[in-house]
Design a protein that fits this description.
This protein is α+β, with helices and mostly antiparallel strands. It is built from five helices and four strands; from the N terminus they run αααααββββ. It folds into two domains: 78 residues, no CATH class; 66 residues, Roll (SH3 type barrels). It has a four-stranded antiparallel beta sheet with strand order 1-2-3-4, with no helix packed on it. Helix 2 packs across helix 4 and helix 3 packs across helix 4. The protein is globular and about 50 Å long.
Length: 163
């Protein structure tokens, strides 16, 4: 077989494999279905633009597992079809009257009331990551918030993670 034909066939195989991996076709046997389900559940709180960023080739192939990539594609597809909702969270601080009402809420014994002042825009230090960051998203229904660390990484947290 001529070398040029061999290169062309090899290139076609690589392209086919790339497209299969891109759309999650043919890789079901090698995926951990239990992990896929857990990752999919975790990704539901991420906005679609964050999922699209995950899937960009420049995000680094080694950064995300095949299960995470497939879960992100599936969730984006479900959202596009109206089968899964976009998460709802705030990206601005609470209004002044909401902050005042929050400060009057009853709290559990030994809960540090100063934690109620945390909100979008608050700077925090996360001991579990050894990093500082800023809260950029807040889910009022679950009291979870997303911290964008100074190095660009991010993580979801809740008030129970702080002292």
């Amino acid at each position: 077989m001529p070398a040029a034909h061999l290169l062309c066939a090899n290139g076609a195989t690589k392209m086919r494999n790339f497209l299969k991996s891109l759309f999650g076709i043919g890789s079901g046997e090698s995926l951990d279905r239990e992990l896929l389900a857990r990752v999919l559940e975790k990704l539901k709180r991420e906005p679609s633009d964050q999922l699209r960023t995950m899937l960009e080739p420049s995000s680094g192939e080694d950064e995300w597992s095949p299960e995470a990539m497939l879960a992100a594609r599936q969730l984006l597809d479900e959202r596009a079809k109206g089968l899964a909702p976009e998460p709802v969270y705030r990206t601005v601080p609470r209004a002044a009257d909401d902050r005042a009402a929050r400060e009057e809420e009853p709290v559990a014994p030994r809960f540090k009331r100063r934690l109620l002042a945390l909100d979008v825009g608050s700077r925090v230090y996360c001991r579990w990551r050894g990093r500082s960051g800023t809260i950029i998203r807040w889910r009022d229904d679950t009291e979870e918030f997303y911290i964008r660390y100074d190095n660009g990484d991010g993580d979801w947290a809740n008030l129970s993670m702080f002292e």
